[in-house]
Amino acid sequence: MERSSARGASGGRKWAVELCDSAPSSSIRDVPDPLGYSRTSLELEESAPGKAKKEIDANFKQAKAWETAQAPFKNLFMIGFMMWMAGLGLGLWKLNSLGLLPTHASDWVSTLAPPTNVEFSGGGVPLS
Amino acid sequence: MNLQVLQQTALGVLILCSIWICCDALYEDQVGVWDWHQQYIGKVKHAVFQTQGSGRKRVIVGTEEDAIASLNLRTGEVYWRRVLGEGDSVNALDIINGKYVISLSKDGSNVRAWHLPDGALVWESLLLPSMGSVASLLVLPVDINNDRMNDMLIFSGSMLYALSCHDGGIIWKADLQALREDLVIKKVSLSSDGTLFGVGFSDVSGLVIVEIDLRFGHIRKINPVGISKALDTKELMLVNGVAVALDAAFTTVVTALIKTGGDVKIVETLLSDLVSAEVKSAQILSTTLEGAVAFQVNGKVVVVKVDSATGQLDVLEVFESSVVLSNSLNVVESKHATAIVEPTEDGGSIGKFSLRVVYANSWSVDAAKDSVSLESHRGLIRKVFLNAYLRTDRSYGFRALVVGEDDSLSLLQQGEVVWTREDGLASIIDTWTSELPLERDRHPVSEVEHDLADWLRGHWLKLKATLFLASAEELAAVQALRLHSSDKTKMARDHNGFRKLLIVLTKAGKVIALHTGDGRIVWSVLLPSLRAESGISKVPLKLMPWQVPHQHALDENPVVLVVGRSKGISDSTGILSWVDVYKGKELRSSKLNFPVKLMIPLPFTDTSEQRLHLFIDDKQKAHVFPATEESLSLFLKHKANVVYHIVDKEKGTIVGYTIKNMVDGITEGETDGHVFHTEPIWSVIFPSETEVISTVVTRRPDEAVHTQSKILGSRDVLYKYLNKNMIFVATVTPKAAQHIGSATPEEAGLVAYLIDTVTGRVLHRVSHPFMQGPVHAVFNENWVVYHYFNLKMYRYEMSVIEIYDQNRMGDKGVLQLMLGRHNASSPVSSYSIPSIEVKTQTYFFTFSVKAMTVTSTARGITGKHILVGTVNDQVLALDKRFFDPRRTVSPSQAEREEGIIPLTDAIPIFPQSYITHVHQVEGLRGILTVPARLESTSLVFTYGLDLFFTRTAPSRTYDSLTEDFSYALLLITIVALIIGIVVTWILSERKELGEKWK
Fold first, then answer.
1. CA distances for B185 relative to B181, B199, B246, B512, angstroms
2. Where would you find the membrane-spanning parts of this chain (chain B) (predicted)?
3. Percent of chain B beyond pLDDT 90?
4. Of B643, B722, B809, which has the smallest distance from its Cβ to A119's Cβ?
């Protein structure tokens, strides 16, 4: 499952057959290594020893460290996105429970002007 | 147990919290910033000077408003003032030994001594009241009871008392009525040989002379003197042992020479011989002159000399009726001076008078003569009191205290007005407020610059004060700036609507405009049409807005209408007078052909914004004013819907009338208006044996209502029943209509009614047994709060009635409301059957009440305070939330959120809620509330003997910054912040650049 999605992502295709076998590195990662074959050891052996090897090591470590450092943020971003998606409904529910949505008659009548009287009446106690 | 305590504490805290919000007390330095208080004393009727000795010179006055006051003779300021209770009117005043002021009041039944310097009550003596006669006070030159203080004599009618001036104790009393039932003593005099004479009338048959022993009060002798003619018993003068009276037919002057021993010689002189003319009317004036008597004959004042040896009469001088004479003043041993004030040739209309002082023994020679000019709005001079002082050259100078036609008091000396007090303001009849003119012309640059500099300086000082950097002088300057800011006294409309003109109508028929900023008099006019004319006096009745220009506010002035009435014997027709509010001039006046019984401002105005008025006469005809064609067609359009009612307190009825057709055959015009027939359509008759109308109140016609609904904590809606044509009537049992104590609880009862005045339908009736009046009530929006006395609990109570409409939009859902499918704001007719729900509640209240009203704001959004004029002459603001019939002992959560205060048995009174703070409005009679343009604020004008103006914000000033908000501080903060931002930005830019170069 994971693999197919990775593959899809890399090529945008469902399946592919590579007929020419010239460049080993391109397709190698997609298929599992044959039994007893260790690519890393081969690569390590192939690359120059000493200084270069150390550099690669440091790079790898840094990348890993970055990954670890960024992980919570990535997570947070994900959560944020999720919440944004869910937020609308949640917010509405929350607003409603707080009574901020105009769903009652009382929310609509408070601005209505008071009715006027058709008749006019005056008077009172006569002046002495 | 513990839980209960906890609950109680919680309740207490809750009450405190809720109360906290509604108390808006004043800080000490806010006193006088927007309120003002003025003291008046009323129209002066008695005055005694105290100018001898080393103390401060003063004059003690007694007034028609039942006040006794000591005034500074140099400035007219009040040193002290004491207001006697209602009905305790002053009869006489005198000063004894330069130490006590003696006042006689309430028809001679109350005698009090006041300490002259500070007005403290020294003693009080209550005598038996003697019915219906003028009481007098005579300070004797002798000491009867040997307490080293001269004593005095009080007499009223048939009772004669000798009182000790030392402590007010009665030395002796003589009841002359016990000797002769019909005896009325008018004057008492002490003859040179120490015998006391009382002279009076016995019925109409003749004079009676009573000889009394001064030391013990024994009546030595009663000497009835038979006179051939019946006498006029209104007045009798005693001049140097000669009694002077008029006969009942006003033809003869009867003089009686009294001598010790008993023989009385009667001399009769024909009045027509004296004045050498036919006599139509005559009376003796009460002015006491030395050796002379003043008569009013045929409208002229005749001063007649009385020869004490022969009783012969001799005319000294004849004056026009506008003359005023002072009582004779003993200057030195044998010299008695009298002041004569007359308007000069061109009449009193321009306020020019001549003031002459003559000595009794040389009447034709003027001892002093000055011509004085008073302001024209003072009218004629009504009374004069004379005082003499010794000049440096040992001759005598005179000063005169004069009371104007407008009830003002002025001191005249050497032809100049030294000071004037506008004491007519103590008797305000009616008030109205007007907007000031719009600010038309821009100010010149220099003025603006000056203003700006002042403004900056003021704010700089304020800022220093805020930051506690100001010195004491600067703090004083800040306070002075606040008290006398030019902004508050400007003669133009302000944005917040705090500056207005208070137009007041006084009892003397004077209209005065006061500025609300500082209470100064902007203009005053004594209405010419309300001045007495050929002996017929006129009374002002009411002041109402006639024209309030809105569209033409720039080029038209508001006009007020003053309604008055003639006070003739047969003539009581109405008088209308129109006054320009900005110019203070009477524009025109009209003498109506009918007496005005009722005047009703109609809710329509014509194209020139003149309000239509309906005047009802004594024959139930309705007169429409202004008498123009336009107003007639406007009125005819609305005629069918106009109804009026008349409350007859004597008969106990309220009758509603409708307007019918026009009356034929009356020429319409300024004196009649358009005349219509009317017809009674309904009546409410209260059973006279059980109910007497006590109070009728209506809603204010100009009341602003913001909303028709009341939303509860549970989001339910109550609809207010906002019928404008509704009155509240309170009736009491006839016995309970009198003062408290006149009825037992079982005999007393109060019934409150709500009546629709279009149909006469009684909407609600509630009966309170054991209660009694007086009832004070205030009716606002859909509620009534009323105040009365509970005879059973012996406490005052206040009740509230709230009226809600039950069948209004009962089944309307949210959707229909959202879509506007409702008729909530469509006009309502009183003829449709109402279905109302009434909620009531009652609370105890501490005070008795003199006046009650409610705050009013521009749009009616702000909460309401009920303003109560207390018995202490202060104004107490009570939050309407305390008068909420939905209060319960323990409100639910929702109700608490709504702001409902837990129910208590009494309305709490907090010292902070007195809006008059340190002042008292003596003799408080009325409270007027006017909305400012700022919604949160209501202006309050309280009047009585004193005037007090302030503004109040029932829900605090939520819509404006406080007066002492420091704009300078705000500006400086903003500038500092901007500078800070710029500086940091530059710094960061530099740093970034430096980083990049690294």
1. 12, 6, 16, 43
2. 965-988
3. 42
4. B643
For residues B574 and B559, give the distance between their C-alpha atoms in angstroms, rounded to a whole number: 19
Is A125 in Cβ contact with B708 (below 8 Å)? no
Cα(B587)–Cα(B606) distance, integer angstroms: 19
pLDDT of residue B979: 97
Q: Is A2 part of any domain?
A: no
Span of B221-235, B290-304, B610-624, B747-761 with lowest mean pLDDT: B221-235
Q: Are residues B838 and B986 located together in one domain of the fold?
A: no
Residues B693 and B836 in one domain: yes
Per DSSP, the three-state class of B885 is coil
Closest Cβ opposite residue B696 in set A102, A110, A124:
A124
CB < 8 Å & 24+ apart, contacts of B889-894: B890/B11, B892/B713, B893/B713, B894/B712, B894/B713, B894/B714
Nearest to B717 among A105, A113, A125 (CB): A105
Residue B139: inside a domain, yes or no? yes
Averaged pLDDT score across all residues of chain B: 86
Question: Nearest C-alpha of chain A: how many angstroms from B996?
Answer: 26
At residue B715 the predicted structure's pLDDT band, cuts being 50, 70 and 90, is confident
Average pLDDT (B984-993) is: 95
Residue B614 touches chain A, beta carbons under 8 Å: yes
Asked if B597 reaches chain A (Cβ–Cβ under 8 Å), the answer is yes
- Residues B63-92: tens digit of each pLDDT: 999 999 999 999 999 999 999 988 888 989
Nearest-CA distance A89 → chain B (Å) = 21
Contact by Cβ (8 Å): B959, B935? yes
Kindly report which listed range (A118-122, B10-14, B559-563) carries the lowest average pLDDT score. B10-14
Q: Of B728, B762, B765, B781, which is closest to residue B834 (Cα–Cα)? A: B762
Give me the pLDDT at residue B667, please: 65
Instruction: Give chain B positions within 8 Å (CB) of A107.
Output: 814
Cβ of B707 and A99 within 8 Å?
Answer: no
Q: Is A97 on the interface with B (CB under 8 A)?
A: no
Tokens at residue B116, please? 């002259």
Chain A closest-CA separation from residue B954 CA (Å): 21
User: Is A118 in contact with B829 (Cβ distance < 8 A)?
Assistant: yes
The contacts of residue B831 (CB under 8 Å, 6+ apart) are A119, B758, B759
Q: What is the pLDDT of residue B18?
A: 47
**How big, in percent rounded to 5, are the helix, strand and coil portions of chain B?**
15, 45, 40
C-alpha distances in Å from residue B668, one per residue of B363, B370, B627, B664: 56, 50, 7, 10
B727 assigned to some structural domain: yes
| Residue-range definition of the domain harbouring residue A93 | 72-99
Residue B770 lies in a domain: yes
Same domain, B698 and B837: yes
**Domain count of the fold of chain B:** 4
- Quote the pLDDT of residue B511: 95
The Cα-based distances of B683 to B678, B692, B762 in angstroms read 14, 16, 11
Which residues in chain B are closer than 8 Å to A111, comparing Cβ atoms?
Answer: 707
Of B142, B174, B206, which closes a domain? B174
Question: Residue B184 and residue B755: Cα distance in Å, rounded?
Answer: 52
Number of domains in chain A: 1
Q: Give the pTM.
A: 0.85
Residue B374 included in any domain: yes
Identify the domain containing residue B767 by its residue range. Answer: 688-812+832-844
Helix (H) or strand (E) holding B476: helix B472-483
Domain assignment of residue A77, yes or no? yes
A17 found inside a domain? no
Q: Which two tokens stand for residue B981?
A: 């931002």
pLDDT at B811: 57
Please list, in sequence order, all residues whose beta carbon lies within 8 angstroms of the beta carbon of residue B913, skipping any fewer than 6 positions away. Answer: B22, B23, B25, B876, B877, B878
In a domain, A42, yes or no: no
The Cα of B809 is separated from the nearest Cα of chain A by a number of Å equal to 10
